[in-house]
């Protein structure tokens, strides 16, 4: 006998697709993807971002075809992380025994885990449909004979629909103060370097390392590249940097606690001289615009924490 009034069926919500994270079989890489198609890949050696693809499959980062990915040397391309010194270490400094650009980019990091659809650590960020990967490095994981200080680094890579964010938290876990520099050595993929411009650095003085670290007066127009370029600009982090291809904006870089911007392209002869740079004319399809804090030393007192990062928007 049928009941006169059947209870209403309980509606079943459709299962929403979620971000996916996988670890390679050899435990060397972590890959994350969004249901909308965006993808990021991180090599545990150096916690180096190797690839960042937009939803349409377009690659946003340049990775040398000759890059060494077996953990024997830092990666040429992607986003290597520079810490605790930028460039060749200074003599008679606490970093003097370290390799160029420090140890972060040539140390194996620990993958700490993921979190999905949560707010970014950087201001004005959207937390919808995102995945954050966390990586860790501490003094127990490096050769302490070359840098004597106690530290803990947490590096976060956050992928969202339009943005890729990289942020670093530096904790001084020891009893001594120390100085450090930090930089995100981002290699951007561009269509043709001869038609690429960088805006947002107008009016900023810079150090030209191709002219013996000469300080150059500010220019009032966007930067274009027609020869070897290696410049360190100092400009307030509140001002975003825009990279355009043939007049069309392609990337926008927002910075937090990073008041320096390095603009680098090796051009013809220097590219030929780097064994891990390829193809030989690859300089035509890349430009490094690197957010950092490198023109002076940051002093971190015992027990204190420093945090900074960048947010790159693919336009």
Structure description:
The chain is built from 1 helix and 21 strands. The longest helix is centred in the C-terminal third of the chain and has 6 residues. With 315 residues, it is mainly β. It has a 9-stranded antiparallel beta sheet with strand order 6-7-8-9-21-18-17-12-15, with no helix packed on it. Strands 5, 10, 11, 13, 14, 16, 19 and 20 form an 8-stranded antiparallel beta sheet that branches. It has a 4-stranded antiparallel beta sheet with strand order 1-2-3-4, with no helix packed on it. The model has no long low-confidence stretch (mean pLDDT 93). The chain is globular and about 85 Å long.
What keyword list fits this structure?
315 residues; mainly beta; nine-stranded antiparallel sheet; 1 helix; 21 strands
Mean pLDDT comes to: 93
Question: What is the percent of helical residues?
Answer: under 10%
Structural class: mainly beta
Q: H/E series, N to C?
A: EEEEEEEEEEEEEEEEEEEHEE
Strand order of the largest sheet: 6-7-8-9-21-18-17-12-15
Low-confidence stretches: none
Major sheet description: 9 strands, antiparallel
Shape: globular
Tally the beta strands: 21
Rg from alpha-carbon coordinates: 21 Å
Q: How large is the count of helical segments? A: 1
Instruction: State the end-to-end CA separation.
Output: 64 Å
Percent strand equals: 35-45%
């Amino acid at each position: 006998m049928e009941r006169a009034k059947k209870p209403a069926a309980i509606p079943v919500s459709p299962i929403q697709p979620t971000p996916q994270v996988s670890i390679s079989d050899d435990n060397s890489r972590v890959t994350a993807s969004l249901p909308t198609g965006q993808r990021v890949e991180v090599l545990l050696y150096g916690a180096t971002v190797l690839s960042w693809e937009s939803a349409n499959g377009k690659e946003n980062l340049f990775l040398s075809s000759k890059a060494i990915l077996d953990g024997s040397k830092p990666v040429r391309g992607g986003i290597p992380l520079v810490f605790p010194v930028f460039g060749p270490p200074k003599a008679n400094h606490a970093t003097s025994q370290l390799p160029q650009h420090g140890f972060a980019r040539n140390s194996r990091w620990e993958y700490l885990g993921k979190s999905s659809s949560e707010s970014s650590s950087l201001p004005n960020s959207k937390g919808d449909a995102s995945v954050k990967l966390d990586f860790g490095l501490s003094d127990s994981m490096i050769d302490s004979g070359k840098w004597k200080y106690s530290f803990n680094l947490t590096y976060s890579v956050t992928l969202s629909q339009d943005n890729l964010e990289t942020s670093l938290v530096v904790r001084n876990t020891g009893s001594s103060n120390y100085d450090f520099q930090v930089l995100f050595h981002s290699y951007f993929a561009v269509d043709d370097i001869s038609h690429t411009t960088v805006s947002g650095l107008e009016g900023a003085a810079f150090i030209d390392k191709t002219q013996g670290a000469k300080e150059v007066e500010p220019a009032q127009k966007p930067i274009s590249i027609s020869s070897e370029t290696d410049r360190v600009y100092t400009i307030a982090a509140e001002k975003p940097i825009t990279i355009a291809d043939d007049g069309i904006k392609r990337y926008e870089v927002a910075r937090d606690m990073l008041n320096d911007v390095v603009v680098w392209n090796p051009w013809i002869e220097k590219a030929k001289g780097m064994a891990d740079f390829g193809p030989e004319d690859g300089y035509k399809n890349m430009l490094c615009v690197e957010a950092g804090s490198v023109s002076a030393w940051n002093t971190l007192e015992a027990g204190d924490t420093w945090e900074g990062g960048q947010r790159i928007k693919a336009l």
